[in-house]
């Protein structure tokens, strides 16, 4: 969740997030609870099945609090990203990596993963949030 998408968007409301699954037992698999509503839970390679995301009203204004909940399912390359990066990197060095997304839905948020490796082995990943609002 993002503060801008909760209540009046000022960040004064505090909603938390809990994720349970898979069914049928629904064990808790992730939580996020900060002093704001900027909450996220990431599940790397989750077991197949049905999951439940629970939004907890920890501290909000009186009355109903509107919010938007986003689910990003990253499964392979969608072929809609162009990457321009140096062919080599040196430890302690710097370089510029440019990313361009094409044909993505306007007025929402998207999540991408940039994998770092040597062509044979992946060393790490960077999550990239794309906001088209």
What overall form do the CA principal axes indicate?
globular
Low-confidence parts, pLDDT < 50 over ≥5 residues?
A: none
Mean pLDDT: 90
Q: How far do the termini sit from each other? A: 15 Å
Q: Tell me the helix content.
A: under 10%
Give the oligomeric state of the chains in this entry, treating copies of one chain as homo and distinct chains as hetero: single chain
Rounded to an integer in angstroms, the radius of gyration calculated over CA atoms is 18 Å
Largest sheet: 3 strands, antiparallel
What amount of the residues lies in strands?
35-45%
Order of helices and strands: EEEEEEE
SS-based class: mainly beta
Number of helices: 0
Number of strands: 7
Strand order of the largest sheet: 2-1-3
Description of the molecule:
This protein has 133 residues and is mostly beta strands. The chain has strands at residues 14-20, 28-32, 52-59, 81-84, 98-101, 109-117, 122-131. The chain has a three-stranded antiparallel sheet, with no helix packed on it. Strands 4-5 form a two-stranded antiparallel ribbon. β1 (14-20) and β2 (28-32) form a beta hairpin. It is globular and about 55 Å long. The two termini are 15 Å apart. The model has no long low-confidence stretch (mean pLDDT 90).
């Amino acid at each position: 969740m993002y503060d801008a998408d909760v209540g009046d968007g000022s960040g004064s409301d505090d909603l938390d997030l809990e994720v349970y699954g898979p069914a049928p037992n629904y064990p808790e698999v992730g939580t996020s609870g900060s002093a704001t509503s900027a909450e996220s839970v990431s599940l790397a390679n989750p077991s197949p099945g049905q999951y439940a995301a629970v939004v907890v009203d920890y501290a909000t204004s009186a009355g109903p609090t509107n919010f938007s909940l986003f689910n990003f399912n990253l499964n392979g390359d969608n072929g809609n990203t162009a990457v321009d990066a140096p062919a080599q990197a040196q430890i302690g060095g710097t370089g510029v990596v440019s990313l361009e997304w094409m044909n993505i839905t306007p007025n929402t948020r998207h999540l991408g993963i940039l994998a770092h490796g040597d062509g044979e082995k992946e060393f790490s990943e960077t999550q990239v949030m794309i906001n088209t609002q």
